[in-house]
């Protein structure tokens, strides 16, 4: 086994749960992970934007990632987490049910989504088979497109 090619091929990911499903993103887009705290709602914001939170003097939007992915709204609990990400030059907090793990996996384990998954797959780069589970690998860059930040409810 050649560890040099594996190191170059490695994906460092953070895995989290939404409604008993596993998702992940690249760790390079993560600034920090925080426990859930109430947010300040913003009138007339899109349904997936729960409100804003003060992060050490910077006000950031908090997005219900489940809603963004077309799932039922998450119910925030003391086990919920806010994954603070830096994407396309913007800081965004993502509400998730809980963070599962930080993993390094071989890039070769990332498999494309089947064509039958439909248009909702637009935010995914594929599926990672890990242990006995499947983890959907999300593309935050596509989810929060740099072309039009207003399309998901926040100004740049």
From TrEMBL:
CDD domains from the xrefs? CheW (cd00732)
- UniProt xrefs under Gene3D superfamilies: CheA-289, Domain 4, SH3 Domains
Q: Where is the CheW-like domain?
A: 10-149
Q: Which InterPro entries match?
A: CheW (IPR039315), CheW-like_dom_sf (IPR036061), CheW-lke_dom (IPR002545)
Q: Which residues form a coiled coil?
A: none
Q: What is this protein called?
A: Purine-binding chemotaxis protein CheW
Organism in which the protein naturally occurs: Peteryoungia aggregata LMG 23059
């Amino acid at each position: 086994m050649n560890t040099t090619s594996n190191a170059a091929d490695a994906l460092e990911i953070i895995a989290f749960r939404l409604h008993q499903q596993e998702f992940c993103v690249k760790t390079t887009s993560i600034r920090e992970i925080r426990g859930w705290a109430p947010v300040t709602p913003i009138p007339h914001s899109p349904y997936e934007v729960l409100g804003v939170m003060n992060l050490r003097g910077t006000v950031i939007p908090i997005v219900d990632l489940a809603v963004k992915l077309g799932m039922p709204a998450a119910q925030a609990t003391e086990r919920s987490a806010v994954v603070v990400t830096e994407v396309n030059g913007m800081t965004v907090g993502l509400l998730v049910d809980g963070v599962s793990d930080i993993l390094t996996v071989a890039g070769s384990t990332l498999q494309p989504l089947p064509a039958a998954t439909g248009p909702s797959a637009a935010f995914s780069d594929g599926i990672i088979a890990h242990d006995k589970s499947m983890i959907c690998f999300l593309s935050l860059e596509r989810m929060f497109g740099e072309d039009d930040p207003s399309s998901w409810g926040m100004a740049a």
